[in-house]
Write a structure and sequence with these properties.
Blueprint: H1 16-30, H2 38-73, E1 82-92, E2 95-105
Antiparallel strand pairs: 1-2
């Protein structure tokens, strides 16, 4: 199976891409271009559903990141605190996704591990 590169989406509904993928699959299944044999149909559904599941996981991670952003915006931070966004790639059971988190550095504090 070919793994898709993880990518984050622009602000908005993180599930919009998932809905588009689902609609594309339904359209393919209802049309003449759908696989004609049972085994070909199963293979196509296995591949498409794996990517759909990866997209669902990515969308959920984006929802959690936006909630974290909202929580930070509602929190009183010590003056001079720096907020940064860190992203990393995660190879999940469903394929590669991007995990984004916020990091805080208080003024005058050393970074962990230094």
């Amino acid at each position: 199976m070919t793994r898709k590169k993880a990518q984050t989406r622009a602000k908005g509904d993180p599930f919009s891409g998932v809905r588009s993928s689902f609609d594309r699959i339904v359209h393919q299944l209802s049309g003449n271009e759908a696989p004609q044999t049972h085994s070909d149909l199963e293979a196509m559904l296995r591949q498409e559903s794996a990517e759909l599941t990866r997209q669902l996981l990515q969308a959920r991670l984006e929802v959690l990141f936006e909630r974290e952003r909202a929580d930070l915006a509602a929190t009183s931070l010590e003056p001079g605190t720096k907020v940064r966004v860190r992203e990393r790639q995660l190879e999940s059971e469903f394929g590669r996704v991007t995990v984004a988190r916020h990091g805080l550095t208080a003024p005058g504090k050393k970074k962990p591990g230094l």
